[in-house]
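DATA SHEET
Item: assembly model
Revision: 1
Owner: S.N.
Input lines:
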Amino acid sequence: MTSRIESGEAAAGAHAHPLAPRPDGATLLKRLNRIEGQVRGIGKMIADDRYCIDVLTQVSAVQAALDAVALQLLEHHLHGCVQHAVKSGRGDHAIDEAMVVIRKFAR
Amino acid sequence: MTSRIESGEAAAGAHAHPLAPRPDGATLLKRLNRIEGQVRGIGKMIADDRYCIDVLTQVSAVQAALDAVALQLLEHHLHGCVQHAVKSGRGDHAIDEAMVVIRKFAR
Amino acid sequence: MTSRIESGEAAAGAHAHPLAPRPDGATLLKRLNRIEGQVRGIGKMIADDRYCIDVLTQVSAVQAALDAVALQLLEHHLHGCVQHAVKSGRGDHAIDEAMVVIRKFAR
Amino acid sequence: MTSRIESGEAAAGAHAHPLAPRPDGATLLKRLNRIEGQVRGIGKMIADDRYCIDVLTQVSAVQAALDAVALQLLEHHLHGCVQHAVKSGRGDHAIDEAMVVIRKFAR
């Protein structure tokens, strides 16, 4: 099997997560479901013409929840896929790939 | 009528937006609907155990979309509610309130 | 005297800060001096080839200190210049100008 | 020699940067010197009571310059120290340590 790190592109199928099973898959999904509901709630606040400051406060809460999800995913990715890639001699590529997303989340 | 700025708390009803009707209410709602769909898509990616980097890239796209919504809401709020509050002698309170959310979005 | 908000450009001279004297000018200067020293310290850490994580921790401390300065300046600006501009009928311009810098500091 | 990753604390001496010499040490130092000068310039702008928006624009430029330094240091650290740690069986510790600083720079 060619892992996605090797192929360097996104495949549609399942991802092996060498060395570390993705922890908290169910927890992550529960979080995402909650975030989806929060976003729907913001839409409703806008439809109801609610006070801007209250809407902004909710948007900020969703951002914080997404930040937490992103950091959890990144941590898992570094411990699992990147460590595995390093041990397989493909570390530089995996790190370059991780830096691309770290830059997106950096200020 | 007691505006929410005067009362300093979030009421459940409609918000008058003195001086400036909220522009793009329909556009904002459409954006929020799209963001809700994106969040649902991220949940599906996690359920399908998709490659972490691809999931993170999607999370980052949602964050950027929420940032845009937040800045549009803030701009509207400053032009409308805050200007109105300043002209009504309640500017300091409205600005303090705006700073609270600006701090949440600042890096 | 033409204020900088009216002229819409940066003049080299002193700035009147209508309605609100810039509070804590001395405090701000003291903070900036401390930040300047911290940046010098980071340069020294790099020259001494100090451990990356320690250097990064210091960079992050400087960023936090600059964030605090920026938010203090912005708060002062909104309470002073922007309120004055609104009362003088030039509020929309002053708010557009403030939004440009808020966007720079937003995530 | 006990590396700083092993000891988990900041030592005062030079840092070996296993596997990868810190690239651009001179470039980084030049950048830091420029940033130090920019911070000094901001202090002067405040002393001269320059227009808040102009000061904020300069603060934002310094933040962007520090972000670039931080990302360059982090990238170097991941390619060098972290890869080396992974190959030496100390990867989990090195990644936990890197996540601490990544969290500081994340939004």
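QC remark: Residues 25 and 31 of chain A are 10 Å apart (CA to CA).
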